[in-house]
Amino acid sequence: MGARCWGALVVTLFGRDSLIVSLQNTSVSTGFARGALKRLAQYQATERDDYPDAQPGKILHEMRFGELAHFRAIPHTPYYGTADATILYLLVLSESYRWTGDMNLLREYRKVAEGCLDWIDHNGDLDGDGFQEYKTYSPLGYENVNWKDSGDSVVYADGSQVKQPKGTCELQGYVYDAKVRMAEIFSALGDEARAQALLQQAETLKRRFQEVYWMEQEGRLSGALSPRREHSPGLGLGLRLSDAADHPWIAGRCPPQAALCQSDAARVVIGPPVAAPACRSVHVHPPLLARGRPLALGSGGEESRSRGDTGGSDPGHRRT
To answer: Can you give the pLDDT at residue 140?
Structure first.
């Protein structure tokens, strides 16, 4: 699937582009999604190779052909420098199932999906703090491998570059949505234990995101976390407020508005605590349903939240 890049039409296989186009077209035709799921699964990485930034379970960023690719003078054979395609693959699988009800689709790509989830938890989370971060290992790799993948797209308010590894806000929203959706899928496949575990992970991520990414003084969310142990008041020149506040995936599926707005910790993308009637509901998805019933967090979820298993926020992160 081609993509328009720097004013030129590039006709090749892209991970992020193919998946976003597929996601946008599932209500009209699932052909895009079926083709993308199949083709990208064929190139899912099975081993670590730093030259193309590959790790087991990762979905590719871009495939190139020609002399440079043939002689591996470039890493695009394929190149795996993308922080979001692996997560987006799960969203497309879920959305395709929701529109078709095709259980064979879930069975066919179950192992691929499990590989994606494993990558998210291990190679996507570089320091084990529960958040997604990205870092390139290839000598020819990209500085930024989020959806804004230009070299100067993630900066501090003063214009200086954020160093790798970087944890941009939208990646956390993608993972939240992916795990809630995959809980639905595993429930449909009869694996309730895995479904409940994924729901718990999603709830934990949501709670920690609300705590760590919210900037109290500025009254808004941080665009990204950097590894530097100091604060920055701005989103940076390359990060718009809409990345954090208006992204539909990071908005996720909020709990009842009153409960959300009255909780100090519940400052997910709708903003700081306000009176319940005034709470915004933009981009909030309807309740997740699995075969006609709500797919809810099990009894173990509340217990683990009360124990605070993840250790809470880390105020030392520098925010951009």
So the answer is: 95
